[in-house]
Amino acid sequence: MAGSLPLSVSMISFNEEKNIARTIESVRDLAREIIVVDSHSTDTTREIAASLGAKVFEEDWKGDAGQKNSSAAKCTEEWILMLDCDEVLTEELRRSVVEAITAAKHDGYEMTRRTHYLGKLMQYAWYPDWKLRLVKRSSNPVWTGYDPHNHVKINGTTSKLRGDMIHYSYKNVYHHFVKTLDHARIAATSYHGQGRPFRWSNLLLNPVVAFVRLYIIRLGFLDGFRGLVAGFSTFAYTFLKYVFLRELEMNGSNRQPK
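Given the sequence above, the corresponding structure tokens read:
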């Protein structure tokens, strides 16, 4: 890569041909190395990434955290920037990344993510969404938590950067709610695997709390129609997560002994 910073970019992919070039283009002049771990895409994701200078590895799916840890482990530079294929750094954030690596005062840096939804950047809903993404390789970064909402843990101090990651997460409302349904199912499966029990209070109260937090407390209503859809999707995701968890418990209790 042509980048001048001691920086590796760590990514994972699956059928991201419409997004991955935009993400790589936003960082390729900064990083000396871009690592992409792909889980057998059936489109041209791997070819696009390779054409832009990324080192591409094809591996079986190990879960979101497992796949991201595999990608991070392949990085060789002093610093690692961890990105999803639908995230793009603004110019202000790019400058902040350069300053942080040059100064090296901390072992990790959080950056906030702003979602681009229905043709416009959200100002309140889903924002600010702070993510630890720039870390020293020596801080032993590990993705942990439950799928699909995992996070990075490191050994060392952290600070925050100026600027946003722009998140091009949803193509349209249909795509948004398909992903909401899928994420709720994945989260419930993770809960079930960890032995977290279903509780009626979670099903009845948590969706309401989630909606109020996003739409009222965090001023999502000021995003107008987009904010209302975001609030409802948060309600639906939380509700369905516990519905799926209950279904998993019921299926387990209904199994006949062999």
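The chain has seven helices and eleven strands. Try to locate this feature in the token string yourself.
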